[in-house]
Amino acid sequence: MNVFRASCVLAAPLVLAACLDLSPVVDQRPMNEAERTALKDTGTGVSDSASDGVAATVSFARDIRPMIKRSASDPDSKGCYPCHDGKAAKHVGVDLGGLDLSTLGKLREGGGTSGKNIVKPGDPGGSALVQKLKGTYPFGTRMPKSGPPFWGDGEIAIVEQWIAEGAQGDDDE
After folding, report:
1. From start to end of the chain, where are the E strands?
2. DSSP structural state of residue 147
3. Burial class of 147 by CB neighbour count within 10 A (0 to 12, 13 to 18, 19+)
4. Cα–Cα 20 to 30 A to 71, which of 13, 42, 80, 150?
5. Global pTM?
6. Smallest Cα–Cα separation from 82: which of 73, 103, 67, 146?
């Protein structure tokens, strides 16, 4: 057998393995408003684009940050600002609980009772953030403290999906 044919025989399993890679395709494009609404409405954490075999990836900056930035002083908004924004003039949640949500890096540091367990990548149920939003955290009150209304099941599902996907994002987001 010549060298060319021998190398083809040896490489064939690698090429075949690459062709048969069944890893899920992750959609890196921003979700459009219809997909975001579908995600919220179904409460499943999966957008309509999943029906064609493509899972929508949750982005902290695009999908979660806007929910956090809603004002807690607006009774209809169910947000975290300004209580948990260390950059805000009044930040009672930072002062009392130690949780600063001004950046993703600060969120990852956690608060006085949660510490690094605030977000446990890959484990939404074990993440204090999800527990606080659902009212199952053993310390303190359900968030937002100004609730009800509280975050809806669809909104919490977005946070759960982000954590399940590894809680990706840059610390300065």
Report:
1. 26-27, 55-56
2. P
3. middle
4. 42
5. 0.69
6. 73
